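To close the chapter, one final illustration. This time we ask the reader to focus less on the individual chains and more on the assembly as a whole: which components sit near each other, and how the overall shape emerges from the parts.
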Amino acid sequence: MISVEEALTRILERFRPLPSETLGLGEAFGRVLATDIAARVTQPPKAVSAMDGYAVRAADVAAVPASLKVIGRVPAGSLFAGQLGPGEAVRIFTGAPLPDGADAIVIQEDTEVSGDQVTVKESSPLGHYVRPAGLDFSEGDAGPRAGQRLTARDVGLIAAMNHPWVQVHRRPRVAILATGDEVVMPGDPLGPSQIVSSNGLALAAFVRACGGDPIQLGIAPDRSERLAELAAGARGADLLLTAGGASVGEHDLVQSALEGQGLQLDFWKIAMRPGKPLMFGQLGDTPMLGLPGNPVSALVCALLFARPALNRLRGLDSPAHPVSPMRLGADLPANDRRQDYLRARVSKDSQGQRTATAYGRQDSSMLAMLAAADGLILRPPHAEAARSGAMVPVMDLRELAEGL
Ligand SMILES: Nc1nc2c(c(=O)[nH]1)N[C@H]1C(S)=C(S)[C@@H](COP(=O)(O)OP(=O)(O)OC[C@H]3O[C@@H](n4cnc5c(N)ncnc54)[C@H](O)[C@@H]3O)O[C@H]1N2
Ligand code: MOO
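The assembled structure is written out below.
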């Protein structure tokens, strides 16, 4: 058995960012930029008013009340053709360019209008309510960078920088193959000793949450030829995930069946719980992660190993799993040689201090508990017994995996 760290290092060595593609900005949310963005325009392009009111010369309204002659109006999107002279004002609206000669805005609430005269009741210092050209950014300024996952804010900024298209990394294509004679799809006829398959659908959802496109290869029965046939559908995918058949029983056929198809095994078995029988290798051009069949093991391994691989494929450079220290809510016994990921409830006290309490029974078949869990308490190999109140590392499932 190898350590979790070594397994992750060996997995990540096999993955490089996928090539980029050009996408309309409207489709780019959540994708990872392949190039740096620089502003193609200056925003705002000219000095503009930040309020509805009157463009004035600050000097003319230094002493109030001041009576000015309104010589025109300038809504947003137009330009005032003339020049504003002493004793004059121009009616102006939010976002409209300042007329030449004006250097301050008086908001309309501080004025009284009569005919073409406006009486200004409050003075307005130089530059008041004026947004100078380039306040937000100037042409050539740096925007979002290559390797950034685009948020709604980024999309807004890139649009404002006048880019209709962006270069983003292609989404990883992930083939998913569930295995086992005992599993059938939800809703299908269920034999007396059969159970409903959750792994394929859960992994596909997880792949989507990680920015990939899942390809369902179906459920392979425990027969090598059929398993190999279905796995052949992974050709062209960026990653093959199998679930089940990874362990040591005579019916655990994934390794032998795929070795018959040229699988180059890199490693098999990790000192972790859940997830010990995980295997990693290469089937043709496609890296393959053989996940254990227990639903919790499959998803925890996907989180620990498939997610960093997918992050690398989609151009993100954040393979590490964020882990934060939390207070332990109940005693834990000493650990054996497998690194443990204990499903736990996390609560927050009034000071925001978080406490993680492991569920009593930790069985890798218990999907309901995983779904209810807020976090995974990380117990390194041979960790000593820990008392309630001790600080322990926890992976926060609610913050972490965009949907695990
Ligand atoms: N003698 C040993 N037995 C086992 C060992 C071991 O070291 N020695 N390891 C155990 C561990 S740890 C795990 S984890 C499991 C993993 O086994 P497999 O990857 O071979 O998975 P299966 O045997 O195919 O299935 C395990 C379990 O999960 C259920 N399952 C499978 N597929 C699905 C699915 N699509 N949806 C829902 N549930 C699924 C299956 O019915 C089994 O109950 O091996 C231990 N055994
Ligand atoms: O991954 Mo097995 O995870 O210990 O049941």
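The chain has eight helices and 24 strands. The chain has a mean pLDDT of 96. With these observations in hand, you are ready for the problems at the end of the chapter.
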